[in-house]
Amino acid sequence: MEETRAMNADDIDEIRANISKTMAETMKIGAETAKIQAESRYYPVVAFGAIIVSAVGAATAIIVKLFFYADS
Prior knowledge:
The protein is mainly α.
């Protein structure tokens, strides 16, 4: 078995650096999660808007075809 030894200043600094790194990574993951949640809230609105715009475009094309090219 390995003997236990007292921690020196370098060991403590390394532990603090690892803690800081872990905290930064956790904050990054939290920010990414918030972004994904925000996108999931407004994405259906954007998709529905695209469907509406497509429907209006198709209706306009049909109306133009009926009124302006009816004699053809």
